[in-house]
Backbone:
């Protein structure tokens, strides 16, 4: 998920709208299951997005305090923290999975 | 072939019968069932609640199943995973693999469980009899279990 092309980078638009979803204890700490957010164009990667979210309030700061354990999915596919978010419609944050 | 995510319980015999109905090419069927333990460490638990990511869960399970079908000569496979609130002793997950010979069926079933546990977006929360509850931590051993399947 790190190979989105240059062509899909935002060009003229300053902000993009994406749906953010949270699961398990990330959801509990943020205090909502999902929200629609307008992201500044300077946010390029998942890691940038997490930094931006942490600055939004104490609840986000608490949810993302252990950023190294948070897992991410872009449009329902597992992604790494250095993945580009250009073109994403839905980005989800959750703890390591514990099914089975 | 199939994946199902559901709140309802499953019937292992009925699922096996559905897989083998009308077929004579299958020589081995492996079933794995995961159930809710009544303890977490040395503490009793009263319920286990499973949350998931609708849409992504089904996609990940289907992807893992397709990967197994590519690696082993499977005649059929099935993954059922339950969600919602479950009591100790209840079924959580069912994996069935069928093949002409046992090795493929055994290995594919283990592969499916190892991948499911580390990739499929499910999260368990365990509640104690006093009403307190905690999210289950991911195990390092589950991640380590994946390494033996590296190509």
Residues:
């Amino acid at each position: 998920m790190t190979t989105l092309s240059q062509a899909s980078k935002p060009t003229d638009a300053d902000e993009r709208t994406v749906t953010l979803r949270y699961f398990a204890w990330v959801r509990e700490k943020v205090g909502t299951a999902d929200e629609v957010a307008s992201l500044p164009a300077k946010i390029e990667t998942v890691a940038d997005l997490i930094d931006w979210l942490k600055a939004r309030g104490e609840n986000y700061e608490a949810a993302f305090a252990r950023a190294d354990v948070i897992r991410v999915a872009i449009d329902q596919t597992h992604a790494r923290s250095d993945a580009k978010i250009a073109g994403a419609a839905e980005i989800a944050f959750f703890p390591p999975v514990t099914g089975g | 072939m199939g994946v199902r995510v559901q709140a309802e319980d499953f019937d292992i015999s009925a699922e096996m019968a559905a897989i083998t109905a009308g077929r004579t090419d299958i020589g081995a069927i492996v079933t794995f069932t995961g159930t809710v333990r009544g303890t977490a460490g040395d503490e009793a638990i009263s319920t286990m609640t499973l949350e998931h990511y609708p849409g992504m869960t089904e996609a990940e399970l289907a992807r893992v199943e397709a990967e197994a079908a590519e690696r082993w000569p499977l005649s059929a496979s099935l993954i059922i995973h339950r969600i919602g609130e479950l009591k100790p002793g209840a079924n959580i997950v069912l994996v069935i693999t069928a093949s002409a010979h046992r090795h493929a069926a055994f290995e594919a079933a283990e592969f499916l469980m190892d991948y499911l546990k580390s990739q499929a977006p499910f999260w368990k929360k365990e509640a104690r009899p006093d009403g307190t509850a905690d999210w289950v931590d991911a195990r390092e051993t589950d991640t380590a279990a994946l390494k033996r399947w590296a190509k």
Notes: The helical segments of chain B are 12-20, 56-71, 102-119, 140-147. Residues 3-20+29-134 of chain B form a domain with the Aldehyde Oxidoreductase; domain 3 fold (CATH 3.90.1170.40). Chain B has one domain: 3-20+29-134. The interface with chain A takes residues 34, 50-53, 55-56, 59, 81, 92-93, 113, 116-125, 135-138, 142 of chain B (CB under 8 Å).
